[in-house]
Prior knowledge:
- There is one protein chain.
- Helix 3 runs antiparallel to helix 4 (about 150-175).
- A hairpin with a 2-residue loop joins strand 18 (about 315-320) and strand 19.
- By secondary structure, the protein is of the alpha+beta class.
- It is built from six helices and 22 strands.
Amino acid sequence: MNRTTYYIFLIALGLSACSDSKSDLNDVPSSVDETESSNELVLTDDLVKKLNLEVGKIEKHTLGATVKVNGVLDVPPQNLVTISAPLGGFVKQTELLQGMKIKKGQVLALMEHPDYIQLQQDYLDAKDQLELLELDYKRQQELAAENVNSTKTLQQAKSNFNRTKVKAEGLKARLAMINITPSALESGTIKQTISITSPISGYVSQVNVNLGMYVSPTDVMFKIVDTDHLHAEVQVFEKDITKLKIGQHMRFTLVNESVERIADVYLIGKEISAERTVRVHCHLEEEDSSLIPGMYFSGVIEVGDKPVLAVKSDAIVNFDGKDYLFVLKAKNTFELVEIKAGVTDAGFTEVMLPEGFDVSASIVIQGTYTLISQLKNTEEE
């Protein structure tokens, strides 16, 4: 054998070996058959049985329609009180701190000012004058009945009595504003300090004073909030406001909390804001003393029921931010079809199908995530 013939023999031998190796690889059994489409998956009978797949249909279901909302917990106006000094004065004593629980009528601070003393003196003087003028007025009435005095004298006595009576009543009302009872002054004891009390029970949310500080009637000394009747204030876009009705349920979750709470729509605003939203007032079904006004939340308002095409929620597989269904095209042959998921209620999810989709087709309703893993593994191979 010459050298040229020898080289030709070696090349032929190598090609034969490669052919045999490829033939051996093709003889290895596989549970997943090759397909032309990257979204189509063909399985063997054994693998279908092993995966325990379940097939169902797309059906019409009545699901609850919802409106997504965001909002904040708040209290009604009567449960939030701003405390000030009606006549102004200096803070002599207070022990309040933010977060302290207080009761209705509890003393919040003691105030002092020379005007308080003067007011009490003026009232006592007016009260004494009123008694004298009342006696004089009655005497002039008796004299006038006997034609002893003139009509002018009687009218003057009546005017003095009425004017002093009005003055005394005004001073009495001013004393009530600073929590001084006029009857307590009958003994002649004048109080040097007045007390500022809480009109409601609740918690101290603001403390803006310190000892010795002068506060005017317009200054905010304290804020008291009663959290027993928190409500949920939400903003609803105008396009959704016609869907709302009094009594509808709202399911919401506080920020950084997984517990779902329930509230009912109580009032619907009649004004559209600059952001094209309407304020909706909701009442919580269960009060919770741990909640604080100002907490943010997100939720949905259940606005009614509507019949839609839906599948069991487990039938929808989410991959790379998109939703899919596995459609049974033939025996052991499944096609991955992109859809859009809608409302979810009672274990069913609304589906928006692509144009031309056969609504009567069978779909996989159990084992979808196993199928997506098989499909992706096949693509990688």
